[in-house]
Design a protein that fits this description.
- With 105 residues, the protein is mostly helical.
- The chain has one domain.
- It contains 6 helices and no strands.
- α5 packs across α6.
- It starts with a helix and ends with a helix.
- It binds heme C (HEC).
- The site of heme C (HEC) has 20 residues, from α4, α5 and α6.
Length: 105
């Protein structure tokens, strides 16, 4: 599959990103995750809480210390904030946060 994608230059980025999805988050759509994070004011609210670019809210060494807990936290936000994400959307958001901040294997 990866080799197939690499055959098309336009898919290079997609192929590179696909490697950033751990097995537990199989099927995650990173582009969808990025879109959902942008559309649901995650950063805006986190900035209000921690300042800066809001990324200090993501603490890999804290309570959220594994892939399972990270996805659970996104699911909890989903419920609390009434975002009505589908499971695959929660999975995709968690995958983006893991790629950019937590980097759990
Ligand atoms: C209304 C404000 C608000 C919005 C909107 C919000 N969050 Fe949060 N989020 C928080 C607060 C406050 C915390 C810190 C909670 C704590 O430390 O117990 C937090 C913590 C988190 C954490 C855990 C950080 C860690 O490592 O402990 C994750 C993951 C997270 N948010 C994801 C999201 C995502 C994804 C979205 C958008 C879909 C989102 N949040 C939208 C307020 C918000």
């Amino acid at each position: 599959m990866k080799h197939l994608l690499l055959a098309f230059p336009g898919w290079l980025v997609t192929a590179a990103l696909a490697q950033d999805v751990p097995a537990l988050y199989q099927g995650a759509d990173l582009k969808l995750g990025e879109k959902l994070i942008a559309e649901n004011q995650c950063d805006a609210c986190h900035i209000r809480n921690v300042g800066g670019d809001g990324n200090a809210i993501y603490r890999p060494a804290g309570r959220v210390s594994s892939l399972g807990l990270l996805r659970g936290q996104v699911e909890a936000c989903n419920t609390t904030l009434n975002l009505a994400f589908f499971p695959e959307e929660v999975n995709s958001v968690a995958a983006v946060l893991n790629r950019d901040h937590y980097r759990f294997k």
